[in-house]
Structures are given as structure tokens and as C-alpha cells.
Amino acid sequence: MIRVLIADDQPLVRAGLSALLGAEPDIEVVGVASDGREALDLARSLRPDVACLDIRMPGLDGVSVTRELSGPDADPEVPVVILTTFDLDDYVFGALEAGAAGFLLKDAEPEIIVRAVRRVAEGHGTIDETLTVRIIAEFNSRRRLQPVTADRADDLLTPRELEILMLLAEGMSNEEIARELVLEVSTVKSHLARMMPKLGVRSRLQAVVWAYQNRIVRVDPSGPRGG
Q1: E strands in 8-109
Q2: Please, what is the Cα angle at 68 between 66 and 74, to 5 degrees?
Q3: What pLDDT band is residue 175 in, cutting at 50, 70 and 90?
């Protein structure tokens, strides 16, 4: 059972998300908060598997809560899905830097929201398809996740790690990467665990953004593509 915390300052959104996720047989909504401070307190006491946070909330915003729940000093560490009505907003970039595991627009189709919660609970990052290229392109033009440390990833990564990074940038899960490369899932996880410290990132999403920043994968309106 996936235990979920929902935080949003709009009662209708809270009720809608609670009804949507609570209707799934493998998801339980264990807490509902109306502001960031309440969300942080509930997360620390309830220890949910996933926290779905509005990006703009009174008290503490979604970025601040994400940093507390998913940053390097988080205790307990809780994966965060950010919900936003703003498809390109400074808060989105701040949340990615803070360690958010996923981003969704609030008007996303219900099945997309449910699937995102499941993927994040399984350890996979997720971004609404309408956001992916725009977020990465915007990072390329105006923001830096962390200093670029190499012109190309093969200066830092083994050939296998580079293969995995490319497939990760295509949105593949660990299981899909394992099938593509004919590896055990545990082997893929081991490669990811060794790769991310080399890139100076803490999450799969940050690794993908690193790949775009360093032109390992190039931004293309039709979708990710190797370069």
C-alpha cells in the first residue's frame, strides 16, 4: 500500500486529490494539510511514502517543504511530487534543485496523477510530458542545477553508465533500462548509485537535467534524443 500525504491551500483541490488517490486499491491517503508547516509536521509524524505538495502555500511554500523532506539533511526522507498551475515558474526550478522527485500540472488527467504517485513511490522521477522539454530548455538558458563539470559525460562515466544515463533521459524506469540492456534490475540500480555522485546530483531528475545541460542529450520539441 502506498501511503500518501496531500498538501494544498485550496479545499477543492485537497478534496479532489484525496478522492482520486483514495479510490485506488493500492493507495491510502494518510494525511491532508492546508499549508506548508502543517504538511511538514504531518510528514515527519506519519512518514508517508509520497508527499503531493502544492508549490505555493501559506507559511512554508512547496519548495521549502521539499527541501526539508527531500534535501540532503532530510529526516525522514520523503519523495515529493510538486503540483502546480504554473507550467514555467521560478518555484518549479527551486523545487527541482531542492530534490523534488516529480512535477505535475494540476489539470493533468487523473490517470497521469495516479501513475506519477506510483512511479515516485517506486523510486522513479516523473515530469508531466507538457513540462519536460520546457523545464530542461529553461534550465539550459537561465539556470544551473550545479556547475558543469565536464564537456561530455564520457569524461566522468563508464560506457555502461553513459548508456544508462541516455535511457534515463528517455524516461525509462529501472526495469525498462534493464530489459533494454539485458541486465538485472539490481545491476541498473548499482550503476545509478555510482553514477549520481560523479555528476553531483541526488536524484534521477537531476541526473537527466545534468545530461541536457552538458549536451549529452539535446533538447528537441519532439522529445529527448541523444547528441
Answers
A1: 27-33, 50-54, 80-84, 102-105
A2: 115
A3: confident
Kindly give the interhelix angle for 62-70 and 90-98, rounded to the nearest 10 degrees. Answer: 10
> Of how many residues is the chain composed?
227
Distance (Å, whole) CA 222 – CA 83? 24
Report the first-to-last Cα separation within the chain, whole angstroms. Answer: 40
The secondary structure element, H or E, covering residue 85 is: none
Domains and CATH numbers, the chain: 2-139 (3.40.50.2300), 144-226 (3.40.50.2300)
Question: Which tens digit of pLDDT belongs to each residue from 4-25?
Answer: 999 999 999 999 999 999 999 9
Examine the pLDDT at 224 and tell me if it is beyond 50. Answer: no
**The C-alpha cell that represents 30 in the structure block:** 494518510
